[in-house]
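User: Here's a chain of 283 residues. Predict its fold as tokens.
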Amino acid sequence: MSVPIVGTVAELRATVAGWRREAASIAVVPTMGALHEGHLSLVRAALKKADRVIVTLFVNPKQFNSAADLQAYPRTEVADAARLAPLGAHLLYAPDASEIYPEGFATTVSVTGVSEGLCGAFRPGHFDGVATVVAKLFLQTGADLACFGEKDFQQLRVVRRMARDLDIPIIIFGCPTVRETDGLAMSSRNVRLSPPEREIAPRLAAILFETAERIAGGGRVDEALARARSLIVDAGYTRVEYLELRGEEDLAPMSKLDRPARLLAAAWLGQTRLIDNVRVMRE
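Assistant: Prediction complete.
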């Protein structure tokens, strides 16, 4: 069994048109490849919700802030297709950059509000790149629904706002973060960790869960966050880029827990930037 691979909008739309003639519902799972179990869980979720599932694979240059980071990002299309085949995904859309951004391309989709702060503050232009490419993928596939992981929680909020504001007729589902057995959030970047760094990495999630419990139990937010920052550095992380409590719906900063929230963090471990988040609810 193999997954058909197409690389052009024309091929993609021809396939989708055939599915539409069969009155099939269609889901899309956007990825940048280097698929791991977190991605595969999104595909499984999509297969439960739609008759046909398209997985997209595009390493989007517009969402990278560093040319070196873009160059280092793993590209494993053949292996990715092999991982998708047993699941029953119906199509892998793997366009070249020239297909997504043809010569003369001059449009950028920019989402304000939920894109500000957190990763948006440390990766200028990143979410413009995300919103632009995801808008294109939604329109190219014509999908009825899309599945995104909650690990990239700010991204999920940006994509939802973008689709809502542009009246793109698609339902967006957020799927739970998938973790390794030791708690580390699965990420394509985890392969960059050295063996000693991989031993340290799960401490980020452990500290976030512990801090979420502390805040949910009535602890002061500022004190809990300060303590968590120290613990992350003491665990061996190089530096904490951000650690914040934000409203779950609007991502507004919170100084006290008066509604559902997310505790979000980004931290560097050697040369690798890891992000994670956990939900915080009053006990």
